[in-house]
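Handout, section B. The chain below has 66 residues.
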Amino acid sequence: MNCGACVGRINRALNELDGIHGVEISLAAKSAEITVNDADFDSDTIIAAIAEAGYQASPIALANNE
């Protein structure tokens, strides 16, 4: 990600997915915090959506906030 337009594209791509509860993207850190509704939600689905938007992604951490 290099600009606000990049953030917007990724944000739209992620928010189109069923099961996404929230998306917070940091351009400065070039990272996103994504909250999902289902604990079984597949991170590969998120990575594929970001790739479809034209960007590369990989998980850096998974949090379990039960």
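Note. The mean pLDDT is 88. Compare this with the example in section A.
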